Amino acid sequence: MRLNHYPRRLDVTNLRAVAGVSAAAVTLSQAATAVVALRSGRRDYADAVWGPGLAAVSLVSAVVGRGNAWRRWSLAVVSTGWAWLFARCVQKSTTWPELAEVARSVAPA
Fold first, then answer.
1. What is the dihedral of CA 5, 12, 17, 77, to 10 degrees?
2. Which among 18, 1, 108, 6 is positioned nearest to 66, based on CA atoms?
3. What tens digit of pLDDT does each residue of 26-37 get?
4. Taking a C-beta distance cutoff of 8 angstroms, is the pair 43, 37 a contact?
5. d(Cα 81, Cα 55) in Å, to the nearest integer?
6. pTM of the complete model
């Protein structure tokens, strides 16, 4: 545990690595979604991939990133859980006004 109070320097090399791998993961998921949408003739798949894309970024950040492992992985778990809930809500609602009602029915009390 770090006890001194001096500010840490930004690890630019690691930031670039995390940003690059995260961008690749999101690009891959969006491209796969576009292929499915074009083949099926539907255009409503893009909204459903936001949740898995967010989960991919949080998991990539936990795997590739450096720093406090407990903090990285706990944030990845929370972000992935929220992304799963968001994806479920988007897939169940047909219009955005319904999204709040679906979220209330899906979210744990």
1. 30
2. 18
3. 999 888 888 888
4. yes
5. 8
6. 0.71
